[in-house]
Give the backbone structure.
Amino acid sequence: MKRFGDFELDETLRRLSREGRQVRLKGQALDLLCLFVERPGELVTREEIEQQLWPGSNADVAHNLDVLLSRLRATLGDDGKSPRYIETVPRRGYRFLAQVKRTSSLADQRLNNGIVRRLLIYALIAVFAGAVSLLIAHTRYDKFVSPRPAPSSRGLGTRR
């Protein structure tokens, strides 16, 4: 989950919320926001956006991009003339101005808890299997190894 301003963006669930309330944003407008939030402060060119949102398209997508930006700015309550979130860099592209903070979403926490739980189970199984293997080897040791002859006292002289 990523936070910026009053907004939270959960890219896993593809959900935008403002102050805990879900904001309606879907499709390519949400894809565009995700692209901006991934690269805060960096210039994102129009060409990069077109390649990301309309890969392989030969059509002129300039109008579509303008419509998406307008929709995204309206959703964020942003203004192109005095931007808080999306700055237009004339003839080059756009820059996401807000500071983005990464936080754990509930889905991330559940995923991480599931992974940790699974790893702990695997580790316990491995330790148990190792202990059983050692126990079996210890109890069967004499069957697999020939006994060593006891040291004899021959050849050892006694001093008197």
Observations:
- Strands lie at 2-4, 7-10, 15-18, 21-23, 43-45, 86-89, 93-96, 101-102.
- The mean pLDDT is 84.
